[in-house]
Amino acid sequence: MKNTLLYLIIFTVYLNATTFAVVNNEKVTIEDINAIIKSHEDIPAFSALSPREKELVIDQAIEQKLIIQHARKTNIPQQKDFIDSLEVIKNQLIKEFWFKQQFQNISVTKQEVQTYYNEHQANYKQEFMLKARHIIVKSEQKAQQLIKELQSTQKDVQKLFIELAQKHSIGPSASKGGDLGWFKKGQMLDTFWNKAKHLKEKSFTLTPLQTQYGYHIIYLDAKQQDKTLTLKEIYSTIEQEVQLQKFQHLISQQIQRLKKEAHIEVQYDNF
C-alpha cells in the first residue's frame, strides 16, 4: 500500500509538471532523472520506459537526493580535497562554457558555404553502390530448390526471400533476412559483385553462385549510381564544417594573443 501510494504521488506530479518528486523540499527534476539514465547504458530514454521502470528510476533519483542531502550535513564541503576538486570542475566548466559561447557567436555566410563546396567537391562524390541480401546454403541442390520456391511464389518476393534467409541461410546475416546493406566494389568477392550488379532492382539470381562459403542466392534491393551530392543536400554539414574551422582559427588566435599579453614563467628545473 505504501509503495502504491508513493507511485501515485510520483506520477501525479509527473503528469502535471517536470518535477517528479519533492524530497525534503528539494525537487527531483528531469536533470536528476537523466543523470540516472546516463549512468545505465542499458536504459533507453525515460519516455520509452514502462510505468514500473519509470517508478524504479525515480526511486533511484530520490535515493541519490537523500544521500546528497545527508552528505551535505557532514564536514565534506569544508574538506580541502573537496574544495580543490570543486575548483578543478569549476575551471573546466568555465572553459567549456567559454568555448560554447565563442562557437555560437561565429556566423557563416552562404558564400562561404558555396566556396567551401566548390573547393571540396571531390569529397562529395558517391561511388556506384549496391544494396543486396543473400541466402547461403551448403549444396547446389538446396539452392536450386529455394530458387524454384522464389520463382513460383504468389507472395511478395522480397518478403519470402527474407523468410527463407532466416530459415535456411548458414551465413551471419541470416537473422537479418540476409541483408548485407550498402556496399561498393572491393567490399565483396569480385564474383559476388559482378553477379549482383547485373541484376535488376527487386530481382534475384536464377542460378546459384558458388564461393568458398557455399552456394549463394542474391537478391538486389537497390542500386545507387555514381553522383556528386548537391550543395542543397549537404548544406548544413558544410555550414557546420566551416563554422568549426573558423572556431578553431579563432581559438588559435585568442591563445596566441593571450600568451603575448600574459607574464609566463616556465619552471624548467621542475621538469
Rg from Cα: 30 Å
- Beta strands, count: 9
Q: Beta-strand level of the residues, as a percent range?
A: 15-25%
Shape: extended
CATH-level-2 architecture of the domain at 127-227: Roll
Q: For the record, what CATH class of the domain at 127-227 applies?
A: Alpha Beta
Euclidean distance between termini CA atoms: 66 Å
Structural class estimated from helices and strands: alpha+beta
Question: What value does the average pLDDT take?
Answer: 91
Quick recap of the structure?
With 271 residues, the chain is an alpha+beta fold. The chain has helices at residues 2-16, 30-38, 51-72, 80-104, 110-119, 140-152, 157-168, 190-197, 231-261; strands at 21-23, 26-28, 125-126, 129-137, 179-184, 203-204, 209-211, 214-224, 227-228. Among the domains are: 2-73, no CATH class; 127-227, Chitinase A, domain 3 (Roll).
Give a structural overview.
With 271 residues, this protein is of the alpha+beta class. Among the domains are: 2-73, no CATH class; 127-227, Chitinase A, domain 3. Helices cover 54% and strands 15% of the residues. It has nine helices and nine strands. Strands 4, 5, 6, 7 and 8 form a five-stranded antiparallel sheet that branches. A two-stranded antiparallel ribbon has the order 1-2. It has a two-stranded antiparallel ribbon with strand order 3-9. Helix 2 (30-38) packs across helix 3 (51-72). The longest helix has 31 residues, at 231-261. The chain is extended, with a radius of gyration of 30 Å. The protein starts with a helix and ends in a 10-residue tail after the last helix.
